From TrEMBL:
GO BP: fatty acid elongation
Signal peptide positions (record): none
Superkingdom per UniProt: Bacteria
SMART domains: PKS_KR
GO MF annotations, alphabetized: oxidoreductase activity, acting on the CH-OH group of donors, NAD or NADP as acceptor
Every Ketoreductase domain range: 4-182
Record PROSITE patterns: ADH_SHORT (PS00061)
Family: Belongs to the short-chain dehydrogenases/reductases (SDR) family.
UniProt KW keywords: NADP, Oxidoreductase
Protein name: 3-oxoacyl-[acyl-carrier protein] reductase
Pfam families, per database record: adh_short_C2
Length: 250
């Protein structure tokens, strides 16, 4: 049971929404952050009608002033900041010669700068209480993926950030880990299928074929691992990136 306060970024849908639901069902009061708090309203209703606690906040994770303000607001309204899940993400895929500098910048800003800003804001609350859990979101694309120079670099950067924050924050009782999802069925992967002109179901079937476990992942597959890393059961794990990909890299 998590009788604590968790912040999940990019929580309006997909993996973030599933993570918020799981943390709430484990007993956490969940602050769900996304570009628009209105987009989180159905999620908040879902969590509350299951007996949980959830509050929605608008926040662009790449905006320093918004991030600093929202973490103080969450601590004020819910009492503390004990768990941070850095999940917000965007794609701007293209081959290098066609990738614009704004495609590069937005991906680096949301994933890497966002994780940095949110982790820095979270530790201001976690260090004084000498406890906390930060779970970052990397990807199998960190190992390299054609058409994703920006995203692969950001997701590899997340792994370096994770190891470094684990070293810096460990002495204060704060665990910092990452999950690296493989193919998970969300609007993000549906949009990729649409962009390359394949039906989402066909893309999922192709991905399942080359996955040792012969299926694609669901948001709950990631949420379960994030919830474990956010729990006391994982209290001696830090600095790790756990691939949750059905064995895709084997
Ligand atoms: N779906 C996959 O197959 C997969 C695989 C590996 C990693 N991931 C990672 O998992 C995370 C969640 O992915 P998803 O598939 O659920 O994506 P998604 O596109 O369904 O959801 C992403 C959420 O992030 C929010 N967001 C985007 N920019 C934001 C910003 N600047 N500030 C706050 N919120 C912002 C969006 O509004 C959206 O609600 C991302 O970091 C993604 O890179 C996904």
């Amino acid at each position: 049971m998590l009788s604590r306060v968790a912040i999940v970024t990019g929580a309006a849908r997909g993996i973030g929404a599933a993570t918020a639901v799981k943390l709430a069902s484990d007993g956490a009061a969940v602050a769900v952050l996304d570009l628009s708090s209105d987009a989180c309203a159905p999620l908040v209703d879902q969590i509350r009608s299951a007996g949980g606690t959830a509050v929605a906040f608008s926040c662009d994770v790449a905006d320093e002033a918004q991030v600093d303000a929202v973490f103080d607001k969450v601590a004020g309204e819910l009492g503390s900041v004990d768990v941070l899940v850095n999940n917000a993400g965007v794609l701007r895929d293209n081959l290098l010669h066609k990738m614009s500098s704004s495609d590069w910048d937005i991906v680096m800003n949301v994933h890497l700068r966002g994780a940095f800003l949110c982790s820095r804001a979270a530790q201001r609350h976690m260090v004084p209480q000498r406890s906390g859990k930060i779970v970052n979101t990397s990807s199998v694309s960190a190992l390299g993926n054609r058409g994703q120079a920006n995203y692969a670099a950001a997701k590899a950067g997340i792994q370096g950030l994770t190891r470094t924050l684990a070293m810096e924050l460990g002495p204060f009782g704060i665990n910092v880990n990452a999950v690296a999802p493989g193919f998970i069925v969300t609007e993000m992967t549906d949009a990729t299928a649409a962009r390359v002109g394949i039906a989402a179901e066909d893309m999922q079937a192709k991905a399942a074929e080359i996955t040792p476990l012969r299926r694609v992942g669901q948001p709950s597959d990631i949420a379960n691992v994030v919830a474990f890393l956010a729990s006391d059961a994982a209290s001696f794990i830090t600095g790790q990136t756990i691939y949750v990909d059905g064995g895709r890299r084997l």
